[in-house]
Amino acid sequence: MKALGFLRRLAPRLRPHVWAISAASVLILLSSAIGLAFPLFVRDLFDAAFLESNADRLDQYAILLLALFAVQAVVNFAQSYLTAAVSERVIATLRIDLFAALASQTPGFYSNRRVGELSSRIASDAGLVQQVLRFGIPELLRQAVFLVGALVIVTLTSPRLTLVTLTAIPFAIGVAWFFGIRVRRISTGIQDTLAAAVARAEQVFTQIRVVQSFGREPYERGRFELEVEETYRGGLRRAVARASLTGAVTFTAFAAIVLVFWEGGRLVLAGQLTFGTLIAFLLYAMSIAGAISSVAGFWTNVQEAAGAARRIFEHLDREPAIRDPLTPRSLPTPITGRVRFDGVTFRYGNDLPLVLEGFDLDIQPGETVALVGSSGAGKSTVAALIPRFFDVEDGSVSVDGVDVRELRLDDLRGVIGIVPQEPMLFAGTVRENLLYGRLDATKAEVVRAAKAAHAHEFISGFPDGYDQAVGERGVTLSGGQRQRMAIARVMLKRPSILILDEASSSLDAESERLVQDALARLMEDRTTLVIAHRLSTVIEADRIVVIDGGRIVDIGRHAELLDRSSVYSRLYRGQFEAALASVEASGG
Prior knowledge:
This protein has 588 residues and is of the alpha/beta class. It has 20 helices and 10 strands. The protein has helices at residues 5-14, 18-50, 55-103, 107-111, 115-157, 159-166, 168-206, 208-213, 217-269, 275-316, 379-385, 409-414, 430-435, 443-452, 456-460, 479-493, 509-523, 535-540, 558-564, 566-585, and strands at residues 339-346, 356-363, 368-372, 394-399, 402-403, 416-419, 497-501, 527-531, 543-548, 551-556. The strands form 2 sheets. It has a 6-stranded mixed sheet with strand order 6-7-8-3-9-10, sandwiched between helices. A 4-stranded antiparallel sheet has the order 2-1-4-5, with helices on one face. Helix 6 runs antiparallel to helix 9, helix 7 (168-206) runs parallel beside helix 10 (275-316) and helix 19 (558-564) crosses helix 20.
C-alpha cells in the first residue's frame, strides 16, 4: 500500500531494534489472545449461572477472569514501554539525520527557504510519524489479531450469525479508504500552512526590534492570523472528514451488532443457541466492530504521517550541492595560506547573470589584500568561494596549490577564519560562544584570545563574567562587543587564511579603534582577504583589488590607485571621504 511506503524508508532505522520490536509483537499477540479468550469465559460464566445454577463454577470463572486481566495489564505495560522506547529512539535518530541533512546544505539552499518551515519538519512532521510508530502500528497489529481471531471463533460458533456480521466489513473498508485519502490531502495542506505560520513567527521574533520600531505589530499579527485561520479552516475540514469516517464506520458496525442481536435472539428462542453463547457472540461481534473502527482510524493517521514523512524524506534525500570529493587530497604541511583564483566564472543560478567572469587573483602567503567595488560588484562572492560555500562555474580556486574542490570540506574550512560584518552569536554564554572557535580550548586560551580581541575588559564587567548569557543572537551586547567576541572566536581557531567581511563597519569611533586593533593582531602572519570596509584597513593593505562588473579593473596601493584608477577614485570620493575627514578630525 502506497501510504505505508514510508515504513519501508524507516526500515533501516527500525532494524537495530528488531529484538525489541519482536518482543513487543509477541506481547501484543499474548494480550490479544487473552482478549479473545474473554468472551469464552463469559459464555461459560453465564451458562454456569443461568443453565447450571452452579455458584462454585461462577466463582471460579470470576476469579479466573480477574487473573487474566491482571496478566493482560502487565503484558500491556511491557508492550507499551518497548514500543515507546523504540519509537522514541527511531524518531530521535530521524530528527538527528534530518538536522544533519539540512545543516549540510549550502547557504544558497537557505536563501530560498524559511528557517521556521524547516524547523517545523523536524518538530511537527517527525511527531506525526512518531504517533503512528508508537500507537498506530501496535494498535493495528492488536486489532488485526482481534479481527482475524474473532472471525475464526464466531465462524466456528455460528456460521449463520457470522454472515450477518460480515455484511458490514466491505462498506467499512470502502469508507475508510475514501476518507483516509481525503484526510491525507487536507493534513498535508495543514502542515504546510502551519510550517509557514511558524516560519513567519520565528522571523518576527528574530527581527522584533525592526517590527516594533516601525510599529508593525498589528500588521504582523494580521499576517500570522491569516495563516493560522487557514490552518483552522483546514482543521475543520479534516475534522469533518474524520467525523464522517467515524460516524459511517460506527453506524455500520453497530448496525451489524443490532442484526446479530435480532438474529441471535431468534436462535435462542428456537433453542439453537444458549444465552451464554449469544453473549459471547455479541462480545466477539463488538470486538470485530471495534477492530474495523480502529483500523479505519489508523488508516487516517497513516495518511497524515505519509504526507509528513514524504516531506521529511525529501530533505533527507536531497544531496548537498557542495560535497566532499570521492578521493580527497590533503593540504601541504605546513600550510602557507596562498590563495589563487584562476579564470573563475560564477553565477548564483543558471538563469541568473554572471557575477564573476574571468576572475584571476593570486594572494601570496601572509599578504593582506583588500577588495573594493560598488555594491554587487562581486566582492562577497569572491570571499564565499574560498571556503567553498559555492562552487565555481568555470576556472578554479586553490589553496596552497590544491583546488578547493579536491579537499575535504572540514580540512578546507578548518584553515579559514571568517569575521562577518554582522557577527551572529548563539543564545548561550560568552564562554560557549568563544569556544565555538575551538571546542577543546582551555580556559586560559579563551581568556588570552578575549584579551587579544579587547573583549576581556567588558566580559569581566558582566555579573557572571564568561558565564554571562548573551541572549538570542547576542542581543544583550553592543555591535562592537559582538564584533570583538567574533574576533576572539576566530583567534581561538588559529586559521591560516582570514576573511574579513566589512568587519568594522557601522561602529562608533571608540569601538572601531578597539576592533581595528584586535583585527591587526588577528591578521599578523596570516593571509588576509578584506572586503572593503573602513578606510584605515584598506589603506594599510598590501594590495587593493578594484572590482567592477565581476572583473578586476585594477590592482595597486592606495596612492597609486588614486592617481590612475577612475573607478577607485570614484569609490574613494563617494564612500571614503567622510570617513577620512572623521579620522583627520580626531587626529588619526
